[in-house]
User: Which sequence fits this backbone?
């Protein structure tokens, strides 16, 4: 089994609301790792994230964590800097849904780990979301499968299992899933019913 290579060189990162000391140490580590970083004092507009791979923000910054301010993060992996363990602050950080964290003050270790974990968490989340969307799509069109199955049962006087087996055979011939073929059958029944009749006769 092949393992994906851990690589952060070439990452484009926005660092937001970091104090001067942390920004200095982060920039040193980013340069060493080949990460292209841009440091901003506050959360920018949407356009600033267009060519960005990752976001790092200071979870203790009053600029960001004002109680009356709701942040709208882009769909990017996020690393939070944190040094305060007060429950209210941790709750606020949780609401920002970070992918990884770094303890403050920033030192010369942990940056590579945070970058790697944030990227891996984002990849896993993206894969999970794609899987959920595929399952939701199949569930959405599942009702059409039952309608197509019922059509075959009535047309050829078949039982439920035999009708499904026929539907599956027809779908395989069209190199489609049973669900997607069911949509085609319901949309254009004449030709497919003739094909089903020939299949049953053969």
Assistant:
């Amino acid at each position: 089994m092949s393992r994906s290579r851990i690589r952060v060189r070439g990452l484009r990162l926005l660092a937001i609301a970091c104090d001067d000391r942390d920004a200095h140490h982060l920039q040193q580590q980013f340069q060493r790792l080949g990460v292209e970083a841009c440091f901003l004092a506050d959360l920018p507009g949407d356009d600033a994230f267009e060519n960005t791979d990752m976001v790092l923000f200071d979870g203790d910054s009053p600029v960001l964590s004002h109680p009356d301010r709701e942040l709208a993060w882009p769909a990017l992996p996020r690393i939070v800097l944190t040094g305060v363990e007060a429950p209210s602050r941790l709750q606020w950080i949780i609401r920002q849904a970070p992918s990884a964290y770094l303890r403050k003050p920033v030192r010369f270790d942990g940056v590579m780990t945070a970058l790697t974990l944030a990227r891996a968490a984002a990849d896993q989340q993206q894969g999970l979301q794609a899987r959920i969307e595929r399952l939701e799509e199949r569930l959405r069109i599942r009702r059409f499968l039952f309608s197509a199955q019922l059509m075959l049962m009535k047309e050829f006087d078949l039982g439920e299992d035999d009708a499904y087996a026929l539907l599956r055979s027809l779908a395989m011939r069209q190199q489609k899933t049973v669900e997607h073929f069911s949509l085609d059958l319901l949309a254009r029944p004449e030709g497919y019913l003739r094909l089903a009749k020939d299949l049953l006769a053969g």
About this structure: The chain is about 50% helix and 10% strand. The CA atoms of residues 170 and 196 lie 7 Å apart.
